[in-house]
Amino acid sequence: MTEASAPIDGDGRVTDATPATAATRPATPLWLAVTIAVLFGVLYAYDVWEAVRDLVGMSLMVGDLGVSFAGIGLGLLIAALVVPLLVFALAFWLGRHRGPVVQVVLFLTGYAVVQAITLDLAALFELGGIDFS
């Protein structure tokens, strides 16, 4: 940078434009970020556990009845298992370099999305899936 293009302060002196003068985001301490992720991870893990329970329970019920499992039903149960994992990973990835409040908001929003999708998948499963006929 030449002296002609360098920033000048009110006294006419050349100032050094360093990143220290730029606005910086507050960094979340590692222990706080891990604590937030673990606390919300327990909520997401409960949904995953519910999906595993539903998948295993329905598979056992289908086996006891001697009928076959419909493809759409199996797909819905697997989707209910995968959705919480993907949403948690997305919330974690989006909040990794943000402040703690933003991380909490991302995890809460993701959890609300997971609950809405899980409820929709459960309603679809109870209605017998999607009828394309």
From TrEMBL:
Membrane-spanning parts = 30-49, 69-94, 101-125
> What UniProt keywords are attached to this protein's entry?
Membrane, Transmembrane, Transmembrane helix
Instruction: Indicate what this protein is called per its UniProt record.
Output: Uncharacterized protein
The record lists the organism as Agromyces ramosus
